[in-house]
């Protein structure tokens, strides 16, 4: 009873202490503390809503910090001219385009460079894909890592003391004695997966146990040296499955799927390369279009300058006649001339500003700064000869060389392989397993001349205590609903991909057809614009021969305006024709080859070259094997697979059509607009240039072997109707083309030669062909 009373007293004493502590805590509570005045929470509000900036200090691009202010029409300083060729523009843009630029996104608020920078195409994309390690984006190296040998080891020590309640369970120790145990566990394993799906592992285990309980040895070492092998026989079996999906023993079911193999990783790399090639092709297209747009801007500026000079000359003439009291002119005629002069001056200002803007656009694509102290000027002249392309050859080339089709075919091949691997998983998981082990036992781990069972490793090397196992392991998912759903999913995705490929081929044929038509339209429009320019030049010449007292000044003013419009239309159509050629090469899949652009990977590690040379020497000295069978089949090649076959062209030939009975003759080729003289930089203080005679350049723009030579032809056949069921238009009389005289372009009158364009862009660039026909004899 005294013991219980002492325990109760201790219990109440502990309770009192706890209640006192709680009371002290309540007394020290801050809930009853108050402050004078209203709380100021602006500090917290400001820090909670302010915008923070990352602690990143990257150096600015040299093109930004080294650039001067942009050139505007207000600048009076004449900057030197730098003539560039189209090849130089393309080469510079490719060298400076680690991040691929696009002309269509410039000045757009939705520019992907700002809104989606992670998906911008760049030279880093193939390497990023190659080095990917995550599911769905693994590169070849990450996929090959599944076959790397893996080594694991561990060593853990421990000690444990337990009081024993009775002798029976105390290991021979008396009741109340302490059972002491010291343990140590060492394990190591070396495992590797094979290409056929099997895996092998070599394991070594050593366990130490020391105890104070009565035993043969107070401390003992036990363990084994074990070799195990496992091979799938049904689901996931074979080299083909492993190449596609990776080793089945390392898969994670619905997470990894069947797309973690080396082959799928290789295909993903090829798809990334196709995306990169598409971006490079589009960049080359944008650079060439920007180059010709800048050429057009220079030509339109010169046309506007000529129109301004002509209207200024006529204004001065009318002003002198009005001041002299001539009755054939009035103040209204003078003000009309002034109106045309100021309109022409405005056109010159706009044309000059257009040069500066388009030069900035070309600089952006080339990766150049905004202003480096020079003005870019195209040196090459547009192609002015007709390009006659073969439809079937061009369509065949497009269907075999377009990078979009190659990318989609890679996608189809990937889905075909994954479908094949998913079908393997619709079978039970049946694996062959086998193992062999040598067991060890001893008082010591290592030693010499120990008695029997006294040395662990001596027991292992003697091999007296062994074990083995051999058998099968099976797992059967009743119904295989997940595996069958995966197969159905791949079947549907493959069907969609194949249908998309067919639609892409049809889309490409229509795109090529439009480019084919636009090529012919642009050339004919250029030819007709040239005829119009000749006609208005002749009109101005003859009107200048007549006295202005006979013809009203308004007629000459209108003719000058129409001359500028005709020249603008000609240069626009000529540049449009060259753009049509570029578009045709793009639709045909030959744009990069036309510009001599090829994609290749960078240098390898030096050890890779040594391995390649070793393997090459081995193949060169090897004997050819007989009755070789390639398993699995090849999934890629160095040329397009299959072929392109068209229906019988005789069946597609058009029936006799009155509209096509008599081909329209083509005017003499000598009067087709010739290419301009190459530009030479001239100092800004050069005197106004004289008329530059045109020179015929017979070398056309390089074309592909699939196209007919770009040379004059005696006649152009009408486009064949490729379907007899297409309704034919009603026959209409064809207008005859305007006859053109086979003579060189004459020199324009001296009063129209002076131009202020030489004060800004130098001479030698613009052909003075505005007054073609001006010196013709009546």
Structure characterization notes:
By secondary structure, the chain is of the alpha+beta class. The protein contains 19 helices and eight strands. It has helices at 2-27, 42-49, 62-65, 86-95, 112-115, 125-130, 140-144, 239-245, 262-323, 331-366, 391-401, 403-424, 456-462, 481-545, 553-588, 591-594, 606-620, 649-652, 758-761, and strands at residues 81-84, 150-163, 178-193, 199-211, 219-232, 375-378, 429-442, 466-475. Strands 2-3-4-5-7-8 form a six-stranded antiparallel sheet. β4 and β5 form a beta hairpin. The longest helix has 65 residues, at 481-545. The model is unreliable at 651-778 (pLDDT under 50).
Topology:
Blueprint: H1 2-27, H2 42-49, H3 62-65, E1 81-84, H4 86-95, H5 112-115, H6 125-130, H7 140-144, E2 150-163, E3 178-193, E4 199-211, E5 219-232, H8 239-245, H9 262-323, H10 331-366, E6 375-378, H11 391-401, H12 403-424, E7 429-442, H13 456-462, E8 466-475, H14 481-545, H15 553-588, H16 591-594, H17 606-620, H18 649-652, H19 758-761
Query: What is the terminal-to-terminal distance?
Result: 149 Å
Largest β-sheet summary: 6 strands, antiparallel
Number of helices: 19
Order of helices and strands: HHHEHHHHEEEEHHHEHHEHEHHHHHH
The helicity comes to 40-55%
Strand order of the largest sheet: 2-3-4-5-7-8
Proportion of residues in β-strands: 5-15%
Inertia-based shape: elongated
Radius of gyration: 44 Å
Average residue-wise pLDDT: 77
Structure class = alpha+beta
Count of individual beta strands: 8
Ranges where pLDDT stays below 50 over 5 or more residues in a row are 651-778
